[in-house]
């Protein structure tokens, strides 16, 4: 097949059994979100580029990985690389901040996101993210609720080998002090650092710590750590987060070097990675708190906290942990139509479907044997066999595939009989 007709790099097709598995996971996620009081929000897959390209954003995602294009109206639009900024845009646009009694507004979303990254296992250019955002309240306990929801979903999917890494970036004052310390520290090393890091040094030296190129450079090991630049308020906030995690029995590892790849974080940041993970692409869910985004979009100084979970990654991990099995398709009834019976077979099929059963039939005029095989492959619990005699007398031969019993019923008794068999009464 010519390359131009094949999947674009970094994208995937999801076939029948994949989709069944995905829907199962999506349902579990929706149930858990409901339990924690998060409501689904659906925002567009593209936004004005400025929604993502916020001023001074120096993250790789914004500077290098966005799918941006001009539409016919000469607007610059961007396929969403993540969920948070679009959700905050919607939060402000719909004035959800207007009713303090309803804060924090707790929202979740699921859908495709797009990043021009180098594809590899667990990293795609179109990937799917489930994410939550709790907007409008600042409380260490809310940070912990957010983490607990991620942990709870992972547990329901049978994942036992996740490690929660956590850190704090402190408040604005602490971060400014830390940025200055990093600037001073890295200045003499600038000639050794990559070009991106030299740019990061200017714009946001915190980003240097997240560099994939320079991360093993010897000067990284003794770089200043955030912990030493936290003011009292930030320290206290983080301690409360850790205490509540302890109280909930959620294990964590404090990771001084965790700064996250995106620019908008403040205070608590976290990543859940498989225990045996190698490299940077392993986080299954990751997020943190952000103080400035709502204000940036014009909604006032309200904080938010959330995480994003890569569905490809969590599903693969759940399968590896044995917590998620591929669902085989099984149907209620298969209608075998033989000989010249016109539309009688389809009519019977439709009757069964109208009664709520999932039902298949043959359109290829296959032999009786081939149709039995098909019903077997689809794990039909009831087989309805129709020939010319049945069509003439408005009857049907029914076979219970569990007991192998076979009998004839009138068309009007068909639905009730199939129902009985499926309930196990026959
Ligand atoms: P993020 O760390 O960029 O954060 O992405 C969150 C998760 O999305 C990652 O941990 C990973 O599971 C998945 N992911 C990211 N990029 C890819 C990719 N190319 N292929 C497959 N999976 C990927 C955010 O997006 C923030 N919006 C999270 C957040 C929400 N922070 C606060 N609220």
Helix/strand-derived class? Answer: alpha+beta
Rounded Rg? 28 Å
- Poorly predicted residue ranges: none
Shape: elongated
Q: Roughly how much helix do the residues carry, as a percent range?
A: 25-40%
* Number of structural units classed as domains: 2
Quick one: biggest sheet?
A: 8 strands, mixed
In CATH, the topology of the largest domain is named: BirA Bifunctional Protein, domain 2
The order of strands across the largest sheet is 1-5-6-11-10-9-7-8
Number of DSSP E strands = 16
State the end-to-end distance: 52 Å
CATH superfamily of the largest domain: Bira Bifunctional Protein, Domain 2
How would you concisely characterize the structure shown here?
The chain contains 15 helices and 16 strands.
Structural summary, described in words:
An eight-stranded mixed beta sheet has the order 1-5-6-11-10-9-7-8, sandwiched between helices. It has helices spanning 16-35, 49-52, 60-64, 84-93, 140-156, 172-186, 195-203, 218-221, 232-248, 293-296, 311-320, 344-354, 368-377, 388-393, 414-423, and strands at 39-40, 46-48, 67-70, 76-79, 105-114, 126-135, 162-168, 253-254, 266-274, 285-290, 304-310, 333-337, 359-361, 382-386, 395-400, 406-410. With 426 residues, it is of the alpha+beta class. Helix 12 (344-354) links the parallel strand 12 and strand 13. The chain has two domains: 3-171 and 231-320, BirA Bifunctional Protein, domain 2, CATH 3.30.930.10; 333-423, Rossmann fold. Residues 82-84, 115, 117, 122-124, 127, 129, 131, 133, 261-262, 283-288, 306-310, 312-313 line the site of histidyl-adenosine monophosphate.
